[in-house]
Design a protein that fits this description.
- The complex is a heterodimer of chains A (319) and B (396).
- Chain A is an alpha+beta fold.
- Chain A has three domains: 60 residues; 93 residues, Butyryl-CoA Dehydrogenase, subunit A, domain 2, CATH 2.40.110.10; 143 residues, Butyryl-CoA Dehydrogenase, subunit A, domain 3, CATH 1.20.140.
- Helix content of chain A is 52%, strand content 15%.
- Chain A has ten helices and ten strands.
- In chain A, a hairpin with a 2-residue loop joins strand 9 and strand 10.
- Chain A is globular, with a radius of gyration of 20 Å.
- By secondary structure, chain B is α+β, with helices and mostly antiparallel strands.
- Chain B folds into three domains: 116 residues, Butyryl-Coa Dehydrogenase, subunit A, domain 1; 118 residues, Butyryl-CoA Dehydrogenase, subunit A, domain 2 (Beta Barrel), CATH 2.40.110.10; 134 residues, Butyryl-CoA Dehydrogenase, subunit A, domain 3, CATH 1.20.140.10.
- Chain B is built from 14 helices and eight strands.
- In chain B, the strands form two sheets. A four-stranded mixed sheet of chain B has the order 1-4-5-8. A four-stranded antiparallel sheet of chain B has the order 2-3-7-6, with no helix packed on it.
- Chain B is globular.
- Classes of the chains: A alpha+beta (319), B alpha+beta (396).
- At the A-B interface, helix 6, helix 7, helix 8 and helix 10 of A face helix 1, helix 4, helix 9, helix 10 and helix 11 of B.
Chain lengths: 319, 396
């Protein structure tokens, strides 16, 4: 854990880099030391960078670095990874020697990377193969999010030397990936709430700002409750970094994003339904991210099944 | 915040909470038989109150009740989180109702922070040891969410507030939990002009056996007589029982917030985990049920994470404020979600099960409907969030 002053400086440099980066946010983040931060202080790096990406609606393929490093490999700008399929958190690849196949999600980095890592097998017996990017075909880059931060990809290559992966490393990769995505969603939620709040203060109807109407105020209050409960779940997942706390943070991210988007969009009224206003980009990004490393619906059912089968309700975090 | 705040004033050496928890739980395990209720839960309110007082006296004798309280009121010092851990452990084990037990957290700090030192030193140990019960006389029939409009009047005997040795109280309180069992009452009264709002309120520590006090228990919708109407007719209270300054009662009322929103909530959360545990022991298998249980669990987890952060902030800074309206909304919502889950997973239990277990679930399910009302309604919390946290300016 770094000092508050160092953290503030890091946050500022990351935000500045993203704001002035234009299209190439990845390079801008590399220049302010993203990979070094990820190596030295992964928890701070993930929190700061992904919250900032979410808040700015930036697109950068840094999720690859988070997963690669959790798998025990050295992350680099030309090394990509295939993520689990939409709403899933199982390894995306399967080995049918001598071939490797599969389907999953990927960031834009998978196109043109020197190497793409694919985790194969099952969560309890995973293995890892490195493929050329020619083995990865983009099945769909079209979806709700216009920036196509995640795409659907198909894997088809040959499996020379799959390396066994410690199941703990795969679980750690899923956990860190979930936290990273949830931070991005949290950043986007804060941004949606800021947009709606500003609109409510500026938009005048019936001779007064609509922020003075209790119905509007209560929607914004509900949105803040949702954002802050997500931030609390993320802080708990950071302090007690287990597979369970990360899974719950990702599930809370899905539920909170839905609540925040619903109330903020309603407060924004007509302008929130246009592409002239920034709101739609945040809405769409949170919808797209919902499926990365498991959706709230899938995680909730998975967690519930475990509670019922073990007949035990663990508290996970203590004072 | 008063200067001698009960949460932070005494020396609070760093303490290993995990070790404390382990020691506490080992002791509670070893003494389970002595502590367990002597009736089939839920029991009557009389059973519950007697159980709580019995548990308090055993814990006091063993020194647990004193942990986390200042030495000048008979405590053994240490950070307030020690009391929070104790209350949570009792709630998780169903040894005392968290709603009743955690009243200590909204009553004792008031005495510690505002009573003359001798009075606090004399009274607080009696509350902790189970020798006495106290209640909190805040709400009135016409003052619910709008507490500053309260009208129960205190007038100086003889007319001069500076020289009066007694104050005379007339008026009515309502929703006063455990009033019929209580020995004392922390009472808010009107001492300023009728329209003086929060500037004209004074707090007193009133003996409930004073002539002129009538208590009329009110039956809640779950059949329990937990709260009461309390009537005051020319009740004489000595001037030295004034808590805080004349017309300084609003500060007394506001002072409970940090305790209510930290320790009390953590105890309630521990209780809710216990209830969810009981539910998964009884619930049928199946994905439909898994979804309902999972949904309740993630809400409870987010609430616990939030409350944990709040308590660490209180311990670090000595103060928490309007942001705890978020904790309050989350507590109320999670509690209702859990009991809604009970109703969906155990069909017929709340509705028509005549067993003691059915009685317990029914009683608690019905009580949970009030969680968005008591302690500040969900609407008042949202007003505070909008005004204070989102800075939306005034309403209307």
């Amino acid at each position: 854990m770094i000092e508050a002053s160092e953290r503030a400086a890091m946050l500022e440099s990351v935000r500045g880099a993203i704001a002035s980066a234009g299209d190439d946010v990845g390079t801008a983040l590399a220049e302010v030391g993203w990979l070094e931060m990820l190596d030295a202080e992964p928890d701070d790096a993930i929190e700061i960078v992904f919250s900032a990406i979410g808040a700015a609606n930036a697109t950068a393929s840094v999720l690859d670095d988070v997963v690669v490093s959790a798998l025990g490999r050295e992350p680099r700008a030309d090394l990509a990874v295939v993520l689990p399929s939409f709403a899933s958190w199982q390894p995306p690849g399967r080995i049918e020697a001598p071939e490797v196949a599969g389907q999953g999600l990927a960031t834009a980095r998978a196109n043109g990377a020197a190497e793409v890592l694919v985790v194969c097998g099952t969560a309890s017996e995973p293995s890892l193969v490195g493929l050329p990017s020619s083995a990865i075909s983009v099945e769909s880059a079209r979806g709700v999010d216009p920036s196509a931060a995640v795409r659907v990809v198909r894997v088809h290559g040959s499996a020379s030397n799959p390396a066994p992966v410690d199941p703990g490393a795969w679980s750690a990769a899923v956990g860190r990936g979930r936290r990273a995505v949830a931070y991005e969603i949290a950043g986007a939620c804060r941004a949606m709430l800021d947009l709606a709040r500003n609109h409510a203060l500026e938009r005048v109807q019936f001779d007064r700002p609509i922020a003075r109407f209790q119905a509007v105020r209560h929607r914004l209050a509900e949105a803040l409750v949702a954002v802050e409960s997500l931030e609390a779940a993320l802080a708990a997942a950071r302090d007690v970094p287990t597979a369970e706390t990360a899974a719950l943070a990702k599930a809370v991210a899905g539920r909170s994003a839905h609540t925040v988007a619903r109330h903020c969009q309603q407060v924004l009224g007509g302008i929130g339904f246009t592409t002239e206003h920034a709101f739609h980009r945040y809405l769409k990004r949170t919808i797209a991210l919902e499926g990365v490393f498991g959706s709230a619906d899938e995680i909730v059912v998975d967690v519930g099944r475990r509670l019922l089968s073990e007949r035990r309700v663990p508290t996970l975090v203590e004072l | 915040m008063p200067p001698n705040n009960a949460g932070t004033a005494e020396s609070t050496p760093a303490i290993d909470l995990a070790a404390y928890r382990a020691e506490l739980n080992a002791w509670l395990d070893a003494n389970h038989e002595r502590l367990a209720p002597r009736y089939d839960p839920p029991g009557t309110i009389d059973d519950q109150v007697a159980q709580m007082q019995r548990v308090k006296s055993i814990l006091f004798e063993a020194g647990w009740m004193q942990r986390g309280w200042p030495e000048r009121v008979g405590g053994s010092g240490g950070p307030p989180m020690l009391r929070t851990e104790l209350g949570a452990a009792l709630a998780a084990r169903d040894l005392a109702d968290p709603g009743l037990f955690s009243l200590i957290e909204v009553l004792a700090p008031t005495l510690i922070d505002f009573a003359p030192p001798e009075l606090a030193a004399d009274a607080v140990p009696r509350l902790l040891s189970g020798a006495e019960l106290w209640c909190q006389g805040f709400s009135e029939p016409d003052s619910g969410s709008d507490l500053a409009s309260l009208r129960c009047r205190a007038a100086p005997e003889g007319g001069n507030a500076d020289t009066a040795t007694n104050w005379i109280i007339n008026g009515q309180k309502v929703w006063t939990s455990l009033a019929q069992f209580s020995d004392r009452c922390v009472l808010l009264t009107r001492t300023g002009p009728a329209d003086s709002r929060h500037r004209g309120i004074t707090a007193f520590f009133v003996d409930m056996d004073s002539p002129g006090i009538t208590v009329a228990p009110l039956e809640m919708l779950n059949g329990v007589l937990e709260f009461a109407e309390v009537f005051f007719e020319d009740v004489v209270v000595p001037a030295e029982r004034m808590l805080g300054e004349l017309n300084g009662g609003w500060a007394v009322a506001m002072d409970i917030l940090p305790y209510e929103r930290s320790s009390c909530f953590w105890q309630r959360i521990a209780f809710l985990y216990g209830r969810l545990q009981r539910l998964v022991e009884l619930a049928p298998d199946g994905d439909r049920f898994a979804e309902i249980v999972g949904e309740a669990y993630i809400q409870l987890h987010a609430l616990r994470a939030r409350s944990r952060a709040t308590q660490h902030r209180l311990a670090a800074t000595g103060t928490i404020g309007a942001e705890t309206s978020i904790d309050k909304v989350l507590v109320a919502t999670a509690e209702q979600t859990i009991y809604d889950a009970v109703r969906r997973l155990l069909p017929g239990v709340i509705e028509i099960d005549g067993s003691a277990s059915g009685e317990l679930w029914r009683n608690e399910y019905l009580y949970s409907r009030a969680s968005t009302i008591y302690g500040g309604t969900a609407e008042v919390q949202r007003n505070i969030i909008a005004r204070r946290l989102l800075d939306l300016g005034s309403e209307g």
